[in-house]
Design a protein that fits this description.
By secondary structure, this protein is an alpha/beta fold. It has 15 helices and 22 strands.
Length: about 500
């Protein structure tokens, strides 16, 4: 089920926001200092629910970011020499401060990203858990002793930090996407230059403030705020700089491909978590009520603006009508509005470009003969960035909604007959991040889980993200894994050491 606001939660967070809103940091954070752009340029941060400017932050250019890169390199010379225990303790301090300020953080997320407060609290807990997890993983970055084939030699392999890394994060999970990357990087002994999305820089800056309060040294974390106009040059600089040893990016496949190409000039480590086109299959053997509940959770969290949102509902013939009818009933219960209003559980789209995209995809389906069961247009009476929860059937392959990642509150239902046909539809995309399916047939569960061409599978479950699990995709949905113990792999190098001429 979707997380829902309660009057108590809302009142508590709003009181916290009133107490701390004047403390929002509004300057970039470089080498332990709060700074402006050398040019003096700034850009506005807008609340997507109200359209109002909530802050103005520095618009850094490449020369400003080079200073941050230099700071990260200087800091790395000492940070890499800290013990795993020292890094673990500092990360644990950071985690404790984040937990103490969860209401404050939730208010910022709702203000910047538009999520209902209950969802923002959920993200804060999720994001904080990465700092806790990697504070513990810091002390488990083990090496190996390998039996040698030669009596006079010993073989050791140790892990060492990669070096200063560039972290480029999206707006849809402004806390979790930073902590998932930075937590692992810091635990491994790397330093960071973090470029948050232009829509949600305040969240990143307050994370840096709390890291500073936790005792993390200057230069270890640097936050560079940049406008959409300056973002391409900053991304290029981070990718091509010989002083940045790894790039981790979460965002669109198109931008990921560009960054991957730019990183080739220095052959640096690249971690990419890119776009998805998640199938959500409901087989005849499914519990339809549970499938509908899972669909609501997967599709409408953050107004459908998650990379693992169900994008195509692929429903077997015998349960198609039942599923669609029950899904409509639940969708009609959604309440749109400002996330700080009691009872609201569906916020706005992040900006006008996203609203235009969703509108284009829905109108394309209408014009090509799709049936709109509910919704189908902007909710202008609520706000310019709001879009009605929309349910579409009679979908054909020539429609944009069949092939494009929607990133909005639009459920596209496609009917199929056989299991093989359902799998073919599900796999007929170059994306492969997450996939979901519902069935109570155990044999079918194993067959389908193995056959889905995705990096993550939800079986009878619509919410699969967890700190302990490896997050990532296949095909054009990315490289590498985040979270879990494998998240440390992205920020370490294995060094082989051979001891020779030994006498026993």
């Amino acid at each position: 089920m979707l997380l829902r606001s309660s009057q108590g939660i809302t009142r508590s967070i709003i009181m916290c926001a009133q107490r701390y809103s004047t403390m929002w940091p509004t300057k970039a954070y470089v080498n332990g200092e709060w700074c402006d752009a050398k040019s003096g340029k700034t850009f506005d941060v807008v609340n997507p629910a109200t359209g109002k400017t909530i802050a103005t932050v520095p618009d850094l250019d490449a020369s400003d970011v080079q200073i941050a890169i230099n700071a990260a390199n200087d800091a790395f010379n000492t940070w890499k020499k800290t013990t795993a225990k020292e890094r673990s303790d500092l990360l644990r301090n950071w985690y404790n401060i984040l937990v103490e300020n969860k209401d404050y953080l939730a208010d910022i997320v709702t203000s910047e990203a538009g999520k209902p407060l209950a969802e923002s609290l959920g993200e804060v807990a999720y994001g904080n858990s990465f700092v806790e997890w990697f504070s513990e993983e810091a002390r488990r970055t083990y090496g190996e002793h390998v039996p040698s084939p030669n009596k006079t030699k010993e073989i050791l392999m140790i892990r060492q930090p990669l070096g200063p890394v560039g972290l480029i994060t999206p707006w849809n999970f402004p806390i979790a996407m930073i902590t998932r990357k930075a937590g692992a990087a810091l635990a491994a002994g790397c330093t960071c230059v973090i470029k948050p999305a232009e829509n949600t820089p305040i969240t990143a800056l307050i994370l840096a403030k709390f890291a500073e309060d936790a005792g993390i040294p200057k230069g270890v974390i640097n936050i560079v705020t940049t406008s959409r106009e300056n973002t391409p040059e900053i991304g290029k600089l981070l990718c091509e700089s010989p002083d940045i040893y790894g790039i981790s990016f979460t965002g669109s496949t198109e931008v990921g491909k560009l960054l991957y190409k730019q990183c080739s000039s220095t052959v640096k480590r690249v971690g990419l978590e890119l776009g998805g086109n998640a199938p959500f299959i409901v087989f005849n053997e499914a519990d339809v009520d549970k499938a509908v509940a899972g669909a609501m959770a997967s599709k409408f969290r953050n107004c459908g603006q998650t990379c693992v949102s169900a994008n195509r509902f692929i429903i077997q013939k015998n349960v198609f009508k039942e599923f669609v009818d029950k899904l409509k009933v639940e969708m009609d219960k959604l309440v749109m509005g400002d996330g700080k209003t009691c009872g609201v559980n569906l916020g706005p789209l992040i900006n006008f470009a996203q609203a235009d995209k969703v509108d284009r995809i829905v109108n394309d389906a209408k014009n090509k003969g799709a049936k709109i069961i509910t919704g189908g247009k902007r909710a202008l009476s609520i706000g310019e960035r709001f879009y009605e929860p929309t349910l579409i059937t009679n979908v054909t392959k020539d429609m944009a909604c069949y092939v494009e990642e929607i990133f909005g509150p639009v459920a596209v239902c496609i009917e199929f007959d056989t299991e093989q046909e359902g799998l073919e539809i599900a796999n007929s995309t170059n994306r492969g991040l997450a996939g979901y399916f519902y069935s109570n047939d155990l044999s079918q569960v194993w067959r389908v889980a193995k056959a889905l061409e995705v990096g993550m599978v939800g079986v009878n479950e619509g919410i699969i993200s967890a700190t302990e699990a490896a997050f990532g995709g296949v095909k054009e949905s990315g490289l590498g894994r985040e979270g879990s113990r494998h998240g440390m792999d992205e920020y370490t190098e294995i060094k082989y050491i051979c001891f020779g001429n030994l006498e026993y």
